[in-house]
Amino acid sequence: MIFRLTFLGTSASVPSAERNHPALLVEAGGHRILVDCGEGTQRQLLRSGAGFRRLHRLLLTHAHFDHILGIPGLFSTLRLRQSEDLLTVHGGPDTLDVVMRMLAGLWGEGGAPVPLTLEPLTPGRFFQADEFAIDCFQVRHRDTDSYGFVFETPPRRHLRAEHLTSLGVPDGPIRKQLVEGRSITLANGRKVAPEDVLGPPERGKKLVIIGDTDSTEGIAEHVRGADLLVIEATFLERDAAMARDYGHLTAAQAASLAATSNVKQLVLTHISGRYADAEILAEAVRAFPNSRIAADLDVLTI
User: Fold this and answer.
1) What is the count of structural domains for the chain?
2) pLDDT in tens, 256-301
3) What region does 174 belong to: left with phi over 0, alpha with psi -120 to 50, or beta?
């Protein structure tokens, strides 16, 4: 299984002609999950080719308007398209309170134009499917109840071809039973246990997505070993004092986190128009060479 990421919006709080407000679509195991929904997200879904159908979940990092003001427009479009799919919105309690008040102002108390359920986050696992799970953890960003998200597939054990051949295990569904941990009996009566043909466990894939945060303190334990880390880089080190005042990271801080946490690839987002992309990237690669800056409509897979 792979995680497919479509960057729908990569700007900081002020959008630009090239960068929309924050939003990221994650597709995995038949699930389509939107992380944040800044203004204009629905148009970005169209521009990317992803479209509106089968949006299962919306994960909100926090309630600042650049991350949530696209919700009313998206919901209105889903209503006009007569969507009957249930959309589950996950966010911190304070974040969901803002969303509920926004919806109430438009559609009345407790109202929504589409089938909707709101589920408040608490640190830990909040979603489990056969192919992957999602955990959340708290991050610090000014006065918000902000969360980061960890998408992870379970450890896998692969069949060893030489053992299958020596034991006479034929191709077909019977091999799937072994991968799933079930013993089989061959046509000749021979019993084969999973341990007879499976290799050692291999770590699953790990994707970490963090929205706005004013510190990397306490984050490393959640980020450690990630195949891909998506995180903000709103400022450069020369403006570190301003970054602290506004509750954001510098590119150097984000890259240092990746370097000390054994991350494989770093993708920087929440990009401010005050800097050239080349400046941001140069600061990041000094600490972590495998860094890149996300652009709107970029697609990555892990």
Assistant:
1) 2
2) 999 999 999 999 999 999 999 999 999 999 999 999 999 999 999 9
3) alpha
pLDDT (tens digit, 9 = 90+) per residue, 114-163? Answer: 999 999 999 999 999 989 999 999 999 999 999 999 999 998 878 889 98
Question: Residue 186: which domain range?
Answer: 161-197
> End-to-end distance of the chain based on CA atoms, in angstroms?
9
> How far, in whole angstroms, is CA 7 from its chain's centroid?
10
- Rounded to 5 degrees, φ, ψ at 289 are -60, -35
One domain, residues 48 and 192: no
Decide: 59 and 23 in contact? Cβ < 8 Å.
no
Confirm or deny that 270 is annotated as ligand binding: yes
- Angle 14-144-283 from CA coordinates, rounded to 5°: 50
Distance CA 68, CA 71 (A): 6
> Are 94 and 171 found together in one domain?
no
This prediction's pTM: 0.90
Which sign, positive or negative, has the C-alpha torsion 17, 23, 27, 32?
negative
How many C-beta atoms lie closer than 10 Å to residue 171's C-beta? Answer: 7
- 8-state DSSP, 270: S
| Residue 67 annotated in ligand binding | yes
Catalytic residues: 66
**What does the block give as tokens for 275?**
């800097």
62 annotated as ligand-binding: yes
Q: Are residues 132 and 191 in the same domain?
A: no
What is residue 42's three-state secondary structure?
helix
| Encoded tokens for 142 | 């000014």
Distance CA 113, CA 91 (A): 19
Residues 6+ apart with CB under 8 A from 72: 102, 103, 106
